[in-house]
Amino acid sequence: MANIKPHLYWLMASFLLAALIIIASFVVWLRYEPERPIEISLPPTPNHTGTIYLSGAVANPGLYPFTAADSIESLIQAAGGIAAGANLSNVKLSFVPDGKIGPQKIDINRAEPWLLEALPGIGATLAQRIVDYRQQNGPFRSPPDLLNVNGMGTKTYQQIEALVTVGE
After folding, report:
1. How far apart are the first and last CA of the chain?
2. Which residues are CB-neighbours of 10 under 8 A, at least 6 positions away?
3. What is this structure's pTM?
4. In 3D, which of 80, 50, 54 has the Cα closest to residue 65?
5. 97 SS3 class
6. Taking the domains of the chain in order of start, what are their residue ranges?
7. Which residues contact 148 (CB under 8 A, 6 or more apart)?
8. Other C-beta atoms within 10 Å of 63: how many?
9. Separation of alpha carbons 162 and 138, rounded Å
10. Are residues 111 and 87 in contact, defined by beta-carbon separation less than 8 angstroms?
11. Which overall architecture, per CATH, does domain 106-165 show?
12. Which of 11, 78, 89, 143 has its CA 20 to 30 A from that of 69?
């Protein structure tokens, strides 16, 4: 009988452990909240037209014209839809008033690597180094600060100098 008691304790301990795992799983399940869709609406104006800059989770970020008849869904579809595996909450919409669309400069303090890669002479590695430098050292104070980024040479900087700016 002395041999039965230790087995009984192990059985009870295993049962208790299983019960704790089940209870913990139930608590985690109760706290789970699935992603909620984000609702974006533009105020209705009869003859409103303009340009929207779509970025973030869309397949083809860029400038897209719109009219009052366009929906957010149709604008996202014009941008190629949501990028594969992207989170819908990462879609960014910016209104660009008519008449203000011209040569756009890239703000090196806010640009994501994919946008920096659009600059001449900037590949994926250098674009990531620019973002990493900005995160480690704070925002750039002026475009020539790009020369402090490892791999940014004078020749490459001269190619992009007129295409970049620094934001606030």
Report:
1. 80
2. none
3. 0.43
4. 50
5. coil
6. 49-96, 106-165
7. 133, 137
8. 13
9. 22
10. no
11. Orthogonal Bundle (1.10)
12. 89
